[in-house]
Specification:
single chain, alpha+beta, Arc Repressor Mutant, subunit A, 2 domains, two-stranded antiparallel ribbon, 4 helices, 15% strand
Length: 107
């Protein structure tokens, strides 16, 4: 059987599939039976069930996708300095068409 990729579906469809999986589970179906019926991998169904046990009905609602806002989006000056000052400093030069680029980095 070809399994669907839930990540490719819109949020409303994902929420509806989680709701259907929950209903099937309440009817006494096992995870493998639910996975076969909905066309998803058993681990996906098990994750949905675990989410429901942990979060209740909130786990069935559409979720926000992507990174958390502002999460590791910028390189702070502390990170730049910290990564450049470790170990020995080595210089590497690249030449191309009369231009030379020199990069100093730390190992």
């Amino acid at each position: 059987m070809i399994e669907n990729d839930a990540r490719a579906l819109d949020q409303k469809t994902q929420a509806e599939l989680r709701r259907r999986a929950h209903i099937l589970h309440k009817q006494g179906k096992f995870s493998q039976e639910i996975a076969d019926a909905l066309g998803f991998h058993i681990k996906t169904v098990d994750r949905w069930r675990a989410d429901f046990r942990r979060d209740g009905a909130a786990a069935l609602r559409p979720k926000k996708r992507g990174r958390k806002e502002g999460f590791e989006r910028t390189l702070t000056s502390e990170r730049c300095i910290g990564s450049a000052s470790i170990g020995k400093n080595l210089g590497v030069s690249y030449g191309m068409g009369g231009l030379v680029l020199t990069v100093d980095f730390a190992l």
